[in-house]
Fold these 2 entries.
Entry 1:
Amino acid sequence: MRLGFHIQEAYAFLFVGLTLIAALGTFYVSWALSRVVTPERRQRLKVVSSRLRMAWWLIAVFTIAFLLGQPALLLFFAFISFFLLREFIAITPTKPTDHYALVVAFYLAIPLQYVAIGFDRPEIFTLFIPVYLFLALPVIMAFSHDTDRYLERVAKVQWGLMLCVFCLSHAPAIATLELTRYGSSGPLLMLYFLLVIFVSDLCGALASSMLKGKELRFNMNRTVVGTTIGCLCGFIAGALMYWITPFRFWQALLMSLAVVIAGVLGDLVFNCVRRSMGVERLAGEEETYMTRGLLARLAPVTFAAPVFYHLTTNFFITFKDVF
């Protein structure tokens, strides 16, 4: 590996760095909350606090990937997909006649998707949900003979599966990639991706709480300046960590840029979803529990994961001799 690091040393370096970021950020938020005077700034600091709590989940991912291996990592993400989909369905109206479609979504789609990833079958997990389930779910819901808002109900379940299961599952799928250039590995590349997303999201929330500016139309807790700073920080983090990837320096710059842009778009989509459902703020966004506020915290990952996965497979595996 570049810079004279072994894989184990790279894991340790990233683990310590993430722990320091979480500790320093938590100290700052605690200090700032004790001195805040405006409700708006307090709310934004609570959002920052919720993002910092995600650091401890990332530390859990680091530990699982390093100590317990791929099966435990997939099981961890499968549970996250389950809770994320449950939260998505909770804010999107469904009817009792949608029961069988939801059973398929929760108890068939999630296990099969992650089993396919575990057996390294990209031809299955990249097509199973967006092709086969997209065709099967309308049929299952048609058998209920309930045509009231049929298309809308089908679309909600379909896109819940796409965002919460299909897209999110590409994060652990990154760890299955066989990447040997510069001594890199799939698990290290997954951690690289998650850190770029985390740094961009955290710095965007932190800068929005510290600096005044125009609020984003789709997210009142973010400002244009704060989001720009967050993207820049994620971009810089990706550049600084290029040595753990199979990318050359300029390639790491482009990949991190794609990740932060996709992350912002994911945040945009989920905030549009919540507003379309009449939810001004996702319930429990500042809470600590995994089952509450996951949509807000993982929104950037859902869009960025498939983008990063397919860019990597196309340019650094399929056409590796060119790039």
Entry 2:
Amino acid sequence: MNTKDIIAQSTFSMLKGKIDDRILSSLKSMGFEKPTEIQAKILPHLLIGQDVIGTAKTGSGKTLAFLIPVIEKLVKLKFTPKHGVGCIIISPTRELALQTNEVLQKLLSEIDLSHQLITGGEKKCKETISLQKGVNIIVSTPGRLLDHLQNTEFNFKNLKCLILDEADKLLEAGFEKHIMGILNILPEKRQTALFSATMDNKVKNLAGLALKTSPVQISVQDKFQTTVAGLQQGYFICQMEERIPWLNKMLKKCKKLKVMVFFSSCKSVDFHYEFFKSQRKTSIISIHGKLSQSCRKEAYRKFVEAKKGVLFCTDVAARGLDIPSVDWIVQYDPPTDVKEYIHRVGRTARGLNNTGNAVILLRTEEEGFIDFLKTKNVFLDKYNFEKPSSDVLQMLQHLIENNGVMKILARKAYLSFLRCYKKHPMNKFFDINNIDLEAAAKAFGFLHRPHVDFLNIKKKRKHQENSNL
């Protein structure tokens, strides 16, 4: 029997006698009967205390892969508040930290281990009081954790486990200095696990610094397919002035489904949210990095619990979030790189045997991006949709002409859209120089293009290139 067959026949009940019965009971009540591939491969190593590097695509079940052994270890060691922190889990975003904490809370439903979510945007004094009382498991974002390690007196000398979740995203988000600061403060004698969707040189360097022993390296990446098998993904050539009508028709067709729509900026999310929430009867929710933490939490919870509806979002919702039963991913604006594309579409077709759909809108000049994706083992079909009615665009134009607030939102969204294009990392495909600014303005409901000083873009770029020599 080969490894895949063994994994296919594995169940969590087979761990009886190897982990605490209360953990098994919680897993059963949460509806988990069979481990995913990453869980089946990593659990044996983490349960015996080895350091691990786990590489797996988004949606593979990494959260349970590290939470189960963490809880088991602290239960065996009989941790109580007086022992202080036994495990720290570091996440790149508040949303992912919140989600991890919620899964942890369910796993601990029958177990008396204390835990604390620590993220920016919350009142620090409450976290300080909790830490000083004695917290066994911390789930945190890097900045706030480092702040507490440097400025709050609490007991972390008994730390047994450190988990770095979504390590590639931690580095991409600019948390390298924070992570290094955290590693310099924490006890070196500990078990460490690092999880990442991708493994580049930066992640390898971080692993070399964080993991003190020779780590076990586990990868469940498909060599021939970067995205999950149950994902049906494609692209649609949609010119700028047809984007709003297309999205309106798409949301109308998907009124009984669950849809995520990705935009390039917070201002674009705000603008489209304000317009479409008045046009569509379907529930529309928005989430982006400039909303308050309480608003982001509420939006996330609301969409998780929804059976149908739409989430307008930036890439703050692209990584790690386990939102059940998402039917469609719409990439209204392009991702910054291939990894971000993969993480966006990874919000659907999650778990075993699940399916989902994804579409990215491109202009004719951007179609080369599809061939580039092929070189990264991401294959998209070309979709054909019926030409949508322009009625909704005329409605938006009328609204902007007569509503000062919407006009301001539209202008901010238009400018931020152009700025994102101007600084796009893949300007070979997404080039501000070949955008029709008049057509782009129409996409935001303007009859006449707002003044933007983009006339010397090419010259400015050449000047910047020369100044960098």
